[in-house]
Design brief:
Blueprint (H helix, E strand, L loop, with lengths): L6 H12 L3 H9 L4 H10 L6 E5 L5 H10 L4 E5 L6 H8 L5 E4 L2 E3 L3 E6 L10 E2 L6 E7 H6 L8 E4 L5 H6 L12 E5 L2 H6 L4 H10 L2 E7 L2 E6 L1
Parallel strand pairs: 1-2, 1-8, 2-3, 4-7, 8-9
Antiparallel strand pairs: 5-6, 5-7, 9-11, 10-11
Length: 227
């Protein structure tokens, strides 16, 4: 079992968060730009002409990088349910004809849920919150998008959904078996999963069951590649 998802590892994270030390220690051991390693590794997995799903696109930082990497023959589908962020996302990707924006979230089934919109102008910390959300947003499953809406099968899926990672993976069970899908990259939000009584080990085990190999680039990001 990986140290990050072991019972001891999760307990240690919980203690460090309560002490306000988790981010400080991460920057000490991994550097302030530790997410750059994840980005570089993820971008290196992309090929010209690929189809990429950017699940939780926010303002489109990764969306733009993906568009540049896959080129005019590729396709990047950016999923972003936050109504406050969508105008910024549309503006940022406007020069890239290979980008398609979808204004809904991905989850384990089709439904409408409450979404908590943070006060951060960049949309950070906004997330699905079915008990305290203030905005209704639609959710669709990845399998449904392929089977009913004829969305192209992605070669790469990047997921950053603020604690809703497990539901996204559950909603693409059949997609995970598709040979065209080579890479699934996830930012794992330990605190939000912990608050919901969920373990990141479950979603990583699901990826392994579909023949993906897990690589941690830092304590919060994994890149799963098909064997």
């Amino acid at each position: 079992m990986n140290t990050y998802t072991s019972r001891v590892g999760i307990l240690l994270r919980r203690v460090l968060r309560r002490m306000g030390l988790s981010m400080r220690l991460a920057s000490v051991f991994y550097g302030r730009g530790y997410e750059q390693k994840y980005q570089d590794r993820l971008l290196s997995c992309l090929r010209s002409g690929d189809v990429v799903w950017d699940v939780g696109a926010n303002e489109g930082h990764y969306t733009v990088e993906f568009a540049r990497r896959v080129g005019d023959e590729g396709l990047v589908v950016a999923f972003e349910p936050n109504p406050n962020i969508l105008p910024k996302l549309h503006e940022k990707v406007q020069p890239f004809k290979q980008v398609r924006v979808e204004p809904f979230a991905l989850g384990d089934c089709s439904k409408t849920v409450l979404f908590s919109v943070s006060s951060d102008p960049r949309g950070l910390y906004s997330h699905i919150d079915e008990t305290a959300g203030s905005v209704k947003v639609p959710i669709k499953s990845g399998d449904e998008l392929i089977e009913r809406l004829n969305l192209p099968v992605p070669n790469v899926v990047k997921i950053d959904v603020e604690g809703y990672e497990t539901e996204v993976i559950k909603g693409m069970t059949r997609l995970l078996d598709h040979a065209a899908l080579r890479v699934v990259a996830i930012e794992i939000h330990f605190r939000l999963l912990d608050e919901r009584g969920l373990s990141p080990k479950c979603l990583l085990d699901a990826l392994r069951q579909h023949h993906f190999v897990i690589q941690w680039t830092d304590p919060s990001h994994v890149i799963a590649t098909r064997r």
